[in-house]
Amino acid sequence: MERRDLLKLGLLSSVMTISNVYGSTESSNQNIDINKIVNKQRVIIIGGGFAGLSVAKNIKINYNNVEVFVFESKNIFASCPYSNLWFGGVEGVKYEDLLFSPLEPAKRYDYRLINDKVISINRNKKTITTLNSEFEYSLLVIATGIEYNYATFGLDENKAKECQNLFPASYNGGNEQLTLKKKIENFKKGTFLITVPKGTYRCPPAPYERACLIANYFKAKKLNAKVVVIDPREKPTTKAKGFLKAFNELYKDYIEYLPMSNITNIDTENKIVYYDTFDSTTKQFIQKKINFDDANIIPSNIATKLLKQSGLEITKDGWAKVKSPSFESLNDENIFIVGDALGEYPFPKSAQMANSCGIILGEQIAKKLEKKDPQYGTSLPGNVCYSMVSTTTAISVTHQAYLENKVVKVKAELFEEADNATAIATKNWYAGITNNIFE
Ligand SMILES: Cc1cc2nc3c(=O)[nH]c(=O)nc-3n(C[C@H](O)[C@H](O)[C@H](O)COP(=O)(O)OP(=O)(O)OC[C@H]3O[C@@H](n4cnc5c(N)ncnc54)[C@H](O)[C@@H]3O)c2cc1C
Description:
Layout: H1 3-8, E1 21-22, E2 41-46, H2 50-62, E3 66-72, E4 77-78, H3 83-87, E5 99-100, H4 103-109, E6 112-115, E7 118-122, E8 127-130, E9 134-136, E10 139-142, E11 147-149, H5 157-166, H6 175-186, E12 189-195, H7 206-220, E13 224-230, H8 240-250, E14 255-258, E15 261-267, E16 272-279, E17 284-291, E18 294-296, E19 300-302, H9 305-309, E20 328-329, E21 332-337, H10 351-369, E22 382-388, E23 394-404, E24 407-419, H11 420-438
Parallel strand pairs: 2-3, 2-10, 3-6, 10-21, 12-13, 12-18, 13-14
Antiparallel strand pairs: 1-6, 4-5, 7-8, 8-9, 11-19, 15-16, 16-17, 20-21, 22-23, 23-24
Helix pairs in contact: 2-10, 7-8
The protein binds flavin-adenine dinucleotide.
């Protein structure tokens, strides 16, 4: 049943009822008004993903005399990390491995999960408005991840919706993942297209890892099929050596990599992608087109429109600006931004970074609530990012943030010789991060 049908039936009340609040032990038929701050200070977190849940837990671990509410528009947590392994049919990886319930940690650490979408922020009143109600906050954390932007492919809103439904990016958890999995399993022969997003996007290695694992699946099934990867860059965004080696050696007959290729239009009905590409003979960009049989079209990523709508400072690409080296908004001391929505620092957008920053921010907010110095810049985040290039081998990169003349910089270290030990580390990493958030 659609939400609007529920509304018609009058089952959703305008005042948030406890039945919308999961992670609560109170009885489900009890109405309570949780909109106004009464006794304790209140931190509201928008987004119950890797970043938001890490912040919630770590505020509560460090300071308990505060209400923490996490607003999440979805009612299921389906992980993007590890999803490529499931798409590629890596032995032992099931869809259930991507699914987690935040109810247990919410109960254990005493924060509230509210299944509702935040539609606006009123910074003067210090309130948020959701689809159902309005809530006051003392401090606000924006941890909303990414949204899609199909405009860079030349698609208007209608065409974008069509493209998203027909060839979902699967760059968010849920229905899109289930659809992509079916596409891969049902693919018989021909061209399977993957597009690498323009601009800054979530998990830089993910499209290339996905290409490897889908190619591996087609190869194992001996299909007369090819994965074509269209990339606006000269070479893969990260771990280029490792991915190109896999493309050229492991998947020579199964992956065709098209670098420096900018998509200008997509004909979803006739399954044609139009793109400009650099012609090394004429040294000019020329127009080309490619027909495909099925596709995973990953568009550019943008941050939530809530940032701009509420007048928060953003970068030219729309990501949040913060006061370095903190997560505090550049122009609002009561608002913090964390996870993929953040645009200030040279970190990759990853779950590990979201978790690492979330832990640090949770501790800083706890200190702020206790009227202590949050000591911005004392703890800086780190990242490790593994990519499987076959079902048994992987490559990786680490990032460590550091301060140089009060500027946050990042040191990266690449491990691009694929091996089995790194594949095992991939699985251990995933178990560790999900355990940290959902234990
Ligand atoms: C295929 C793939 C593979 C990946 N693999 C890895 C990996 O191996 N390692 C790694 O570190 N990272 C990986 N990532 C990246 C990782 O998924 C993201 O960086 C991470 O999810 C970012 O966390 P976040 O909390 O910022 O965003 P999310 O986890 O997306 O959480 C944001 C949440 O906010 C909610 N939300 C948004 N707007 C609102 C609103 N208005 N009201 C209420 N709720 C709202 C959304 O529903 C969402 O649940 C991968 C990504 C992909 C796509």
